[in-house]
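Posting this for the archive.
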Amino acid sequence: MTELVRLVPGVCAEIILDNPPMNVVTTELTVRLNEVLKTVAADDDTRAVIVHGAGGRAFCAGSDIAEFESLHGRAAEGKVLLEKLVYRRLAGLAVPTVAAIEGHALGGGLELALCCDFRVATRRSKLGMPELKLGVTPGSGGTQRLPRIVGPARAKELILLGEPIDAETALSAGLLTRVVEPGEALDAARALAATLAERGPVAMRIAKRLIDAATETPLDEGLALETDGSEAVFATDDVLEGARAFLEKRAPRFTGR
């Protein structure tokens, strides 16, 4: 029996879904993911997070269909509310997150990947939400996050038809950040996370929060929040370090203070 979700802490922390062979989402996995996310959120040394699946066959192939019968008549209390809480915790992490999609991301697996800021997949990866083929609907953020990323028309195509799309199509739709060769998703995600970790950590957290708020905030309110964010950044030592490093033609050494 695996831990279901493993954590490798560090500046670029890694969260590994480990439920072989396809890393499907069970209730136990969701509970464990919640524990891991709490640990990550409390670690001030973490500057980026990578989420990936063990085994290389799939990032995550979705929910465990074997649990569906036990959820009849009680889906919200038995599954949906818990997953929404945990997925929102991932989406709400202050540091940038990268999903390394080796293999497929389907159903709840794609919903999990949608909570990350960046998604890297391979040319062989398939992404989709086939829930309607099973007579159910995406219930862990898919109907809300997917339209915000790819637009309502493409979201309806993916959800209502339920057919997966290949990585190149997903890239052109804005669903993926990068597409790499098979076997290279994790290395590419690690390189991306390392680059993100080099940026000013205070500025990174504020910028992520402002961007996340932009889709639901009136422009004038968003601009006011942006001004507040700039004030907070310019009160740090990091802004002085960034300017000095630029003038001295060297790499900055940000401390997050």
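The longest strand covers residues 12-18. Strands lie at 4-8, 12-18, 48-53, 58-60, 97-101, 104-106, 118-122, 126-128, 165-166, 178-180.
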